[in-house]
Design brief:
Chains A, B, C, D, E, F: It catalyses: N-acetyl-L-glutamate + ATP = N-acetyl-L-glutamyl 5-phosphate + ADP. Chains A, B, C, D, E, F: Keywords: Amino-acid biosynthesis, Arginine biosynthesis, ATP-binding, Cytoplasm, Kinase, Nucleotide-binding, Transferase. Chains A, B, C, D, E, F: Pfam families: AA_kinase (PF00696). The structure is a homohexamer of 298-residue chains. The N and C termini of chain A lie far apart (41 Å). Chain A is built from ten helices and 16 strands. Chain A has a single domain, classed as Carbamate kinase. Chain A is an alpha/beta fold and 298 residues long. In chain A, the strands form four sheets. Chain A has an eight-stranded mixed beta sheet, with helices on both faces. In chain A, strands 6-7-10-9 form a four-stranded mixed beta sheet, with helices on one face. Chain A has a two-stranded antiparallel sheet with strand order 3-4. The first copy, chain A, is globular. Chains in contact: A-B, A-E, B-C, C-D, D-F, E-F. The interface between A and E is large, with 43 and 43 residues.
Chain lengths: 298, 298, 298, 298, 298, 298
C-alpha cells in the first residue's frame, strides 16, 4: 500500500501539538476579536476555525468582539455623522441605539460561523445575565455620552454557558445603575471578562505585529515582556497611539490574575493557532515574571 | 394600633392567588409578546412586571417577541421601502440585515427591563445554541426571501437557561441548512418553542379581545373552545384576517402537547396576571377537550 | 368584554408584592406559632394560609409551635393538677408523658392543615434526627422536672426536609445526655432553630400588639428597635411579665445571626402576610442596627 | 500473648454473617413491630439493637409500629370504654384523638431508643408528607368510625429519609379525601409501605411461633410456604383468628412485589437477627415460588 | 516579523483535523495493541503518542494488549517449553502463572509510557472489578488448559475509569466460575470489551497491511467491506491463517453494536492517527452497510 | 420450635460488634498485608474474609501487600542470586523486572480471593494513576538499585475506586522523575498511602506478637503506646532488627495524620477482626496521646 504523500508529516504536526493541548486542557482563553481579522472574510473564517479547534481539543475559549467600522458605516447609512473625542466615539442616544444594533448583528453573525463548524455558540451582551455593570467614562474630563467603563462583572452566565459546553461570544455593551445601555470599548470588555474568569490566556487580535521597542524600527519587535518591563515601558512615555491603553490593559489583567496576555497580529492567518501551538509563538507575550515563566514552561 | 385601610383586602387578594400559584409551580409558560403591548410604554412595563412576578412565584416563563413595526421604521430610516406579500414581509438580504439588527435591539431592551426588576434575563435568538432550524416559507407559492418556517427546535439552550434560573427572552430569527439567517414570524416561533418545551400554557398578547363567534358581534366573544371546536371554526372559512393562522397555530400547539393556549388582549393592563390569577380568566382559551378541562380544574 | 369589577386592583396588589417576594427568595423564615392564633379556628386557618403562601412564592418557612393550653386541658382530663413555678410548668414524668402526647397531636393537626392546602408538611420533634439536645432548666434555682434548655441544635434534618421541599413543623421536645425527654418552651425552641438555621426572619405570633414603650399607654407601641435599644429596655427593668424573656430571646437570636425578629399580634388575621408584604409592617421589629436596616431596605 | 477465651468463636460468628450481609446490602427491610416485643423492656431493647445493627451493616430497615394495648390503657385513663367490633376498635372522634396521641408518643419513644444507639431516627406518621391516604374501613358492613384502609401510598418522604441516612419509624395513622385522621391497622400499614417500597423483606414480629399446619399441633409449624400454598391455606378455611388477615396481607404483599415475608415470634430475643443471619431462619417464611427461592439462595 | 518556515502548513494540518476531532468527540475507541508495534521501541512510542493524542482531543481510547512473544521468552527463561495446538498456546498451570506475570508486566510498562506523556493511565486485568468472566476454550475439541473464552463482560470498572478521566489499559486475563485464572486471546478480549462498551471504533494493530481479496496479490488490498461482504468472504473458505478468526471477530463485534472495525498495519508509524485523521484512511475498514456509511460521512 | 443450640450466642456476638461498626463507619483502614499471613493458605483466606467483612459493614479498607519471599523464589527460578544490603534487596534491572512481575501476580491473586467472596476488588500498582512517585533509596549510603523511597502520593485513583465501591489492593511499585520503575518496601508504601488518605487506622500484619518492652521477655508485650513513648523507645536504641524501621514508620504515620497504628500478629487467625471487634484488642497499638485516646473511646 502506498501512503498518500506528506501524510507522515501530518502525523508529525499533530503529535507536536500534544504538549500544548495538554497544557491548556480545560483552561480559559479569552480572545479579543477585532481589526482586520474581522473585516477580511478569509481571515475571519480562519479565526473562527482556530477558536473552534481550541474548543474541540479541550480549551475553554471565549470571544469578545468589537464592531467599530461597521458601526461607523451604519451611522452614516442613517444620515448621521460619526464624532470622536480623544479616540473614543461620542455616543449620544441615537448613536448608542445604532451601535447596539450593529454589535448584536456582528455577534449573531459570529455565532452563525461557529455553529457552521459544528460547535454550538451562544451570543450574549453585557446586559444578559446582568454581566457587565458600568459607569460613564469621560474622555479627558469631557462627557462623551454612553461610553462605559466596567465597574463590576457578574460572570455567572459565562460559567453556566461553559458548563453546558457552549462557546460564549460576547458583545461589549453594558448597563449602569439606572439600567441605561452603554457601549464598552472591546479591549476593556475583554480585559474585564478575562480578569473575572481568571483566564489562563488573553489574546488580542490587532493590526500590528506586536510591541516594538522602537516603533520606527521594525526589527525591534519584542517577543516577550514581564509585567514590570511592560509597566516601565508604559511609564517611559515613549509608547505611542493606540498601543498605550492596550498595554496598560494587559498589565492590569495580569495583575488581577490572568496568567498571560498576548498581542497578536490578526492579519496573519491562523495567528491564534500559531501562537498556541508553536514553541516560539508569535507577536508579543506579557506575563508576570521571568521566574514564573520558566516554571510555567518546565 | 390602627391598620392601614384596605390592608386586609390586600391579604385577601394574595391568599386568593394561592391555588393558581400552586397549579403552575415549575410549569413552563410561553408568552408571545407583540402588538400594542410592545409599543405603549405603560403596557410594556406591566407585561414585564407580570412575567417577572410569574418567575418569582415559581413559574418558568419564556418570552418570545416580535418587532414588526420597529423593523418597518428602520427599513424606512435607511431609505428602503417595506414590501409585503400576503401579509408577510418580503425579506431580501438588506431587509433581513435590518430586521436582525432591530429584533436583537428589541430583545436586549426587554432583557434590560426584566433585569431592572431584579430578575436576570438572557436574550437569545434562534441562531444561538442552534435553536431554531428553518427552511424558506413561501407565500402562496411566491418566494418572499428570508422568511423562515421552523423545521426543528433544539431546546437545549432554553432548558439550560431555565435550570440556571435565568429568564429566557427569544428573538425570532433562525438559520437554514446553509446557515443563512431567516426571519421567523413571532407567532410561529412561540408555537415552535412552546411545543418543543411541552409548555403548560402558551399566551398570545394580541390587539383583539379574543376570538369572536361572529366578528361583527362584539358580544360573541368566546371565552373558551376545545381544540375540535377551534378546528371546526377554522375549517368553516368564516374566520377572517390575521386570526386564522394564529388559531391554526394554537390548534397545532395543543395537538403537539401544549396544555392550553390563550389569546389575550394585550391592551388590557396586566392581562397576563388577570388570565392566570382569576377564575374566569380573560380572552379566549383553547384546550384539548371538555373532559380534560374539568379534570384540570378539579 | 367587561372585566370583573375590582380585578385591576387585584393585579395591583400582586404587583406590589413583587419586591417583597424578591427580597425573601429562598430565605428561611421561622414562625413561632402560639397563643390565640392557635385556638381560634379562623385565625388558625389564616396563619396556615399565610405560611403556605410564603412557601409557594419561594420563601423557606419553618413552623415551631407550642401547646400550653391544650396540655393543661389534658392534664386535667386524666385527673391531674397543672402546677407552675415562675411561669414555667412543673413537669414531672406523668406530666411530661401527657405533654409529649399533646404536643405531637397538635403537631400532626398542623401538618394536616398544611397538607390540605396542597403543600407537603412533615412534623418532627426535637428528638427526631437528634435535633434538640438539652439540659434541665431550673426556675429560680428550683428543679421543675423535665423542662429543658437547649444546649445544642443539629439542624441536619431541617436542612434535608427543606431541600426535599417539605415544610417542617417542629414540636418543642428535646432530649438530654441520658436520652430523657424534655419539654422546651416554644419561644426558646424557635430561637434555637432560627439561630442554628441563620434565619432571615423570626416571627413570634403573640397575644399582644407588640412592645410598648409604656405598657399602660397603648399609643406607645414601638414599631422598631435596634438590638441595643431592646437590650437597654430589658436592662431598664420597666418591662413586665411574659415580654421580658421573649425580648431577651429576640436579642439573643439577632446577636447569633438571625437578621430580624418580629413580635406580631397573632389576633390580627393574616398578620404574617401583612408584616411581610407591606412597607410599614405591623407589630414590633427588632434588628441589628439602624445603619444595616437602611442598607437592607436600599 | 494469651487470647481471651472464646474470642476465636466470636470471629467465626462474624465471618458466618458475611454472606447474609452481602445478600441484603442496600436492600429495604420493613419491620412490623408490635405485640409482646413492644411491651417487655428487654425484648424492646433487643429489637432496637437488631434494627440498628441491620442499618449499620448496610441494610435499609424501616419500622412500622402499632400501639394497641397502650391506646386501650389511655382510653381507660380518661374514663372512656374501649369498644371492638370484629376485632377492630370502634374509633369515634375522641378515641381517634387519644389513639393519635398515644401512637405518636410510642413513635417518639422508639426514635429515642434508636438515637441512643447512635443511629439517627426520624418518626413520621402517615399524615407527614401525605404518605398514607385512606378511606373508611367497614367491619362486616358496620361503620366503626375512623378506622382506615390504605388506598394510596406516597413513599417520597421515606425515600428522602433513607437517602439522608435516617432510620424511618412510621406510626400508622393516615388521612382521607377530606383530610380527616384515621387509625390504620399496623399490619396493613406495614404491608402498604413494604409494597410501595418494593421491600426485599417484610418481617412481622408477632406473639406466635409462626404458622401451624394444624394450630392444635405445635409440631406442625411451617418453616416456609410459597405464596400459592399460603393462598390455598387461607382459602381452606381452616386458619383461625388473627392469623387469617395477617396471612392474606403477606400474600398480597408478595403479589405486589415484596420478595419475602416473615412471620416471626417476637418473644424470642433477637428474633430479627436470628431470622436474617442463620441459614435455617426461624418462624414462617412466605415467598413467591419454590423455583425463585432456589435461585435466591444460589 | 518573519514566520518560521512551514509554520502555515502546520496550522493547515491542525485545521484539517477539525472534522475528525468533532466526529469522535467523547466516543469510545478500543485499540487492540500487539504484534510488531509492541516490539519495536519506536513504533511503541508512536502508538502511545497516538492514543494519548486521541485522549487529549476528546476521544475515549481504551487499550487492550497482548504479550505472546514475551510470554514465550519467559517460559523459556524458566526452562519450560512453549507448546501450541491449533495456534493456541497450551496453558497448563505453571504456564498460566508465567503468562499472568508477563502480561501484567507488559501492562504496567504501557501504563508508564502513557503516564510519561502526562495522561494518567490505569492498568487492569479482566480479574479486576470482575470484568472478564470466561469458560475453557477448546481447540478442535482438545483441552488446552487455561485458555479462556469470554462469556460475560462487566464493564463497570472501565466506565468508572473513563468517568474519572483515566486511560484504561487492559491485560487479557479472566476468571471462570471457580475463580481460576485464564489467559484470553487479546483479539477476543478487545472484541468483548468493544462490544460491551458499544465502541464507536475498534482498531486492530496487526502485522499485515489489511485484508487482501487475494492474499497472493498485494494489489488486492480491500480498503473497506460491509459486514455482509466480510461474512461472505469468511464463508468462502479462501481466507487463510490468522486472518480468519480475526475477521470473524470483527464481524461479530459489528453485529453486536460496534460501529466500525479497522484492521491496521501496526508497522506504519502513527497508523492510528493516519486512519482517524485522513479521509482515505489506511488498512481495511469493516462496517455495517454501505447506506449507513454514507450517512455516517454526511 | 426448638432453636438451634448456640444461636443466642451468635446474636450476642453480632450485637457486641455494634459499637465497633459504628465507630468505623466510612472510615479508611489501611492493611499492610505480608509475612506468614501471606504464605499460609488458611491464614490468607482468613485475612481476606476479615477485610471483606470490614468492607461490607461500612469500613473502607485498603490492602497494601508485599511479596518478598515469592520474589526470591522467582529470582532463583531464572537462575539469579538474590542479594541484600542492610536488609534491603539489591535490585538491579533484571531483578526489578522479576519483582514487578511477581508483585503484580500476587496482587491479582489477592484480587481474585476478594472477588470470590463477592466484593469487587481492583488491583493497582503505584504506577497506575501516577500514584506513588519516588526517588532512589540508599542503604547506608550504598546504591542498591531500583529501591524507592516515596516522595509524593497522588491518592486520586484510590479515592475514585473507593467512591465507586471497589476494594483497592495496592502493589508497592512506583516511578521516579524519569519514569523508571522502583520497588518500594511494602511497609513504606502502606505508611505513605495511609498518610495521604488520612486513614483512621493502619494495621501491620507481622510475624511477631507486637512490640515487647524487652524483646527477650515474652511477658513484656506492650498493648499500647503513645507516639511519644514510641519515639522514646526508638531513640533508646534498645529496639532491634526489623521492628525499628517499622516503629519509626508508625510514628511518622501518626504524626502525619493517621489516627491509630496497630502492629498485629498475622499468625493469629482473624487477627484483624479481633483487633477491631474486641475491647482489649490484640498486638500493640500506637496512638497520638493518652488524652485523645480517652476521648476516642468515650
Amino acid at each position: 500500500m502506498e501512503l498518500e504523500p506528506g501524510i507522515m508529516h501530518k502525523a508529525a504536526v499533530l503529535i507536536e501539538a500534544l504538549p500544548y493541548i495538554q497544557r491548556f486542557n480545560r483552561k480559559i482563553v479569552v480572545v479579543k476579536y477585532g481589526g482586520s481579522a474581522m473585516v477580511d472574510e478569509n481571515l475571519k473564517k480562519q479565526v473562527i476555525q482556530d477558536v473552534v479547534l481550541l474548543k474541540l481539543v479541550g480549551f475553554k475559549p471565549i470571544i469578545v468582539h468589537g464592531g467599530g467600522k461597521e458601526i461607523s458605516r451604519w451611522v452614516g447609512k442613517v444620515g448621521m455623522e460619526p464624532h470622536f473625542v480623544g479616540g473614543l466615539r461620542v455616543t449620544d442616544e441615537p448613536t448608542m441605539e445604532i451601535a447596539e444594533m450593529v454589535l448584536n448583528k456582528v455577534n449573531k453573525s459570529l455565532v452563525q460561523l461557529v455553529n457552521e463548524l459544528g460547535v454550538k455558540a451562544v451570543g450574549i451582551s453585557g446586559k444578559d445575565g446582568m454581566m457587565l455593570r458600568c459607569k460613564k467614562k469621560y474622555s479627558g474630563g469631557e462627557d462623551i455620552g454612553y461610553v462605559g467603563e466596567v465597574t463590576e462583572v457578574d460572570p455567572q452566565i459565562i460559567y453556566d454557558l461553559l458548563e453546558k459546553d457552549f462557546l460564549p461570544i460576547i458583545c461589549p455593551t453594558g448597563f449602569d445603575e439606572e439600567f441605561k445601555t452603554y457601549n464598552i470599548n472591546a479591549d476593556d470588555a475583554a480585559c474585564a471578562v478575562a480578569t473575572a474568569m481568571k483566564a489562563e490566556k488573553l489574546a488580542f487580535l490587532t493590526d500590528v505585529e506586536g510591541v516594538y521597542r522602537d516603533f520606527n524600527d521594525k526589527e525591534s519587535l519584542l517577543s516577550e515582556m514581564t509585567v514590570d518591563e511592560a509597566q516601565a515601558f508604559v511609564d517611559s512615555g515613549t509608547l505611542g497611539g493606540g498601543m498605550l491603553p492596550k498595554l496598560q490593559n494587559c498589565i492590569d489583567a495580569i495583575r488581577s490574575g490572568v496568567s498571560r496576555v498576548h498581542i497578536l497580529d490578526g492579519r496573519i492567518p491562523h495567528c491564534l493557532l500559531l501562537e498556541i501551538f508553536t514553541d516560539k509563538g508569535i507577536g508579543t507575550a506579557i506575563f508576570n515574571s521571568a521566574e514564573e515563566e520558566r516554571y510555567y514552561h518546565g
